[in-house]
Design goal:
Length: 203
Amino acid sequence: MYLVPFIMQAKCQEKTALHHICVFLIIIYIEAWFEATSATAAPYNDLVFLKKLYNYQAIDAEISEVAVSKFINHLWYLSPQAIGLAFFDKNINTEMKRKMLTRLDSNNSSNESTKRLKLNNCDIDEFIKNEIYHFVNSETRDFFKLFNLDESFLENDPSTWDNIHSYKNALNIVTKLRVVNDTAERGIKLMEDYNKLLTTNEE
């Protein structure tokens, strides 16, 4: 309702810019914003969000490029340690978690501990082909040690985890984690850059 006076007086270019913002918010951003405070869902949500930003080039290539270039600097939850949260994500199916288990003891980690995923724009085309289990490696066990979680449930098939005491206790701990500050930082920064791009286009 508050936008009506602005829309009535807006120039054609301003209306077009507002249209672009609304489309972006509806298709891409609103769902991600409301789900971003869930720590257990953060790794999977970040990967899905990045893929959506990348695929948004079919609608607006320029906006997609800017959004992707900013978001790749905020992929903390896809690091080998933080990806441990994904073992508790209810949105990841059993088969995918089995693949994650297989990777857990693989020797595919680097010699140096990776605290933050580093990604360049030139890597995006290949990177988005990854599934969530690709980010799991032997370093992921550090996540369970960091939070002093009993990881004995990992010796069992994911289909049985809901009935295992150690999993229930660990789930109770990790579901209390929140990523509010990160949500605000990423959201505000992304929309600021989006608005700057629209302003530049108008000029």
